[in-house]
UniProtKB/TrEMBL annotation:
This is Helix-turn-helix transcriptional regulator. Keywords: DNA-binding, Transcription, Transcription regulation. PROSITE patterns: HTH_ARAC_FAMILY_2. Residues 182-280 form the HTH araC/xylS-type domain. The lineage of its organism: Bacteria, Bacillati, Bacillota, Bacilli, Bacillales. The keyword Transcription regulation applies. It comes from Cohnella xylanilytica. GO terms for molecular function: DNA-binding transcription factor activity; sequence-specific DNA binding. InterPro entries: AraC-bd (IPR003313), AraC_XylS_family_regulators (IPR050204), Homeodomain-like_sf (IPR009057), HTH-like (IPR037923), HTH_AraC (IPR018060).
Length: 286
């Protein structure tokens, strides 16, 4: 899940709870002396790292654990072992209802805790990322509902551990419980900047191209080629935002796309050419 910044276009004025950003990556050292402007939920999928919070004990966040930070909380975090990967998932949220949501999770704020239902939390985070990535006002209303559902899932996972446990329903073939499909999606997230071909991704997952397409559409609601294209288009937006004046050809190169094809797909996705988008971004900064 690459980082996705929610583009609300004033939808936040209507939403009592909204998602600011969501994603996951191999986390590096990061120092935020003034904190982050929105509340954050962190999930650690693998590896381990240290969160340093002024006035609090250092928190070690390892695999299967979560941490909640209120907006404006100064913090620093870094992998415990720089040579080992530390995969963090995160969702930042805000809105008029955000303080009330945060209050319900107060016992788990500012301290790392083990999430008994971590797999479910991660699946919900992935679903939130996919939804925000699609964009559109309707998607953000649904993202608001899912963010609230994610908060409830955190509470559910930390509720009385002595309560009878319900058996989890069996995951149907081809869904997020399928290791081969997860491997394929992880491959796309990690190598979307290369010239990936769907047949090669299917082969890496151990499926025929036809079966892989069926499974992918069943779980993600779109063909793998469209999913891969969305990853690249979102990354293009980030590259233009992070590198004012970057040439269109360089963006295409970093996405592993032919320039002509990149321009055509960008315009089809956003209704304007990459050059027009970059020019608008520069005008907004001046």
């Amino acid at each position: 899940m690459p980082f996705v910044l929610a583009e609300f276009a004033n939808v936040e004025e209507k939403l009592p709870l909204y998602v600011c950003c969501v994603g996951s990556h191999e986390q590096k050292r990061l120092d935020r002396p003034k904190g982050y402007p929105a509340h954050q939920l962190f999930l650690c999928r693998s590896g381990a790292g240290i969160f340093r919070l002024p006035g609090h004990e250092d928190q070690t966040l390892g695999a299967g654990m979560a941490l909640i930070l209120p907006a404006g909380t100064p913090h620093f975090y870094s992998p415990s072992h720089p040579r080992e990967g530390w995969e963090l998932g995160f969702a930042a949220f805000d809105g008029q209802a955000a303080p009330a949501v945060l209050e319900t999770m107060r016992p788990f704020v500012l301290r790392a805790f083990s999430a008994d239902n971590f797999g479910e939390l991660w699946r919900q985070l992935e679903g939130l990322w996919q939804l925000v990535g699609l964009g559109g006002e309707g998607a953000y209303w649904e993202a608001s509902r899912r963010m609230y559902g994610l908060a409830l899932a955190v509470l559910e996972g930390r509720a009385d551990s002595k309560r009878p446990m319900r058996a989890a329903p069996a995951a149907p073939a081809g869904d997020a419980g399928n290791p081969a499909l997860r491997t394929a999606v992880r491959l796309m997230h990690t190598h979307f900047h290369e010239r990936l071909l769907v047949p090669n991704i299917a082969r890496a997952a151990g499926y025929s191209i036809q079966h892989f397409n069926r499974l992918f559409v069943r779980h993600y609601g779109m063909p793998p080629q469209q999913y891969l294209l969305q990853l690249r288009m979102r990354r293009a937006i980030q590259l233009f935002a992070e590198n004012p004046g970057i040439p269109v050809g360089e963006v295409a190169r970093q996405l592993g796309m032919d320039v002509t094809y990149f321009i055509r797909m960008f315009k089809r996705t956003y209704g304007r050419t990459p050059k027009q988008h970059a020019k608008e971004g520069l005008a907004a900064r001046s």
